[in-house]
Design goal:
57 residues, mainly beta, Rubrerythrin, domain 2, 3-stranded antiparallel β-sheet, 3 strands, globular
């Protein structure tokens, strides 16, 4: 397992995007790096923009 995956949190609702897990239901396979997430992707919980996510680890 690669331990350099990061986690990102939505500033508005707290939704976590974990690169290791991805979001398969959103079309983001496990291992998808945040920088590889499309720029027009929005938070599945609140609709915030990708730019509204902050690195947490």
């Amino acid at each position: 397992m690669n331990n350099d995956f990061r986690k990102w949190r939505c500033r508005y609702c707290g939704e976590i995007y974990d690169e290791a897990q991805g979001l398969p239901e959103e079309g983001l396979a496990p291992g998808t790096r945040f920088e590889d997430v499309p720029d027009d992707w929005i938070c599945p919980s609140c609709g915030a923009l990708k730019t509204d996510f902050e690195l947490i680890g």
